[in-house]
Amino acid sequence: MGILKQGREGWQRWLLCVVAMLAAALTGSLALAQGPAPAAQEYRLGPGDGVKISVFQNPDLGLETRVSETGVISYPLVGSVQVGGLTVGEAEKAIAAGLRSGGYVLQPQVTLVVQQVRGAQVAVLGQVARPGRYPLESTAMKVTDALALAGGTTPQGAEKVILTGLRNGRRVRLEVDVADLFVTWTPEKDVPVQAGDTLYVQRAPQFYVYGEVLKAGAYRVERNMTVLQALSLGGGLNPRGTERGIRIHRRGDDGSVRVINPQLNDPVQADDVIVVREALF
Question: Domain 121-201 carries which CATH code?
Answer without folding.
Answer: 3.10.560.10
